[in-house]
Write a structure and sequence with these properties.
Blueprint lengths: L1 H10 L4 H19 L6 H9 L5 H53 L8 H8 L3 H20 L10 E6 L5 E10 L8 E3 L2
Antiparallel strand pairs: 1-2, 2-3
């Protein structure tokens, strides 16, 4: 999304039909990336990660926060446009897209295909541990998918085990691999 915002901003430096084509292409590609990507995330993430007893309040707060930031964007864009020009305004928001991507990578745990009980265990992990795991995931992604190294070990994260009563036992943590190829996380051997 940041690349498409930069493309839009840089399009304003051109003249004539090239400017129109580059600005429209950047805006269109941004919309294409936003709609299935970051657009529905606040609604999906809060809906699947909150326990049932607070889901209604949590969803209303997530929706209100989303609309607040939409309002903030609409109010600040004209003043940024006047102060920095079109290219600077789009560049400013592109930089915030990059900052947001890094913050999401480091501090937002993956919740796909987890039950509510597994989500409790997932959210009991400290932010520092999750950030370390996220950096290992980045390293794995680059080595496996970009550099095409096939024998790279997928990172795992330590989840505390729970007994039958829902109490966590941190003395014997279990390793969980959150593979996209699997429907549910699977315990790995130590």
């Amino acid at each position: 999304m940041a690349l498409f915002q930069l493309l839009t901003g840089l399009g304003f430096l051109l003249e004539g039909r090239a400017q129109l084509a580059m600005v429209m292409t950047g805006m269109y590609l941004f919309s294409v990336a936003y709609s299935p990507g970051e657009g529905p995330v606040p609604f999906l993430y809060s809906a699947e990660s909150m326990p049932l007893y607070v889901r209604d309040v949590g969803m209303s707060m997530a929706t209100a926060l989303t609309w607040f930031f939409n309002f903030l964007l609409a109010v600040t864009f004209p003043s940024f446009q006047n102060a920095f020009g079109n290219t600077g305004a789009f560049g400013y928001y592109a930089a915030w897209c990059v900052v947001g991507w890094v913050l999401i990578l480091l501090f937002v745990p993956e919740t796909k295909d987890l039950t509510l009980e597994q989500l409790d265990a997932r959210f009991s992990i400290s932010s520092r541990s999750h950030a370390r795991y996220a950096m290992k995931q980045c390293s794995y992604f680059i080595r496996h998918y970009v550099l095409r190294r096939q024998h790279v070990k997928r990172p795992t994260i330590q989840l505390p085990q729970e007994d039958d009563y829902g109490h966590s036992n941190t003395d014997q943590p279990r390793k969980i691999s959150f593979d996209k190829d699997e429907r549910m996380p699977t315990p790995l051997s130590r």
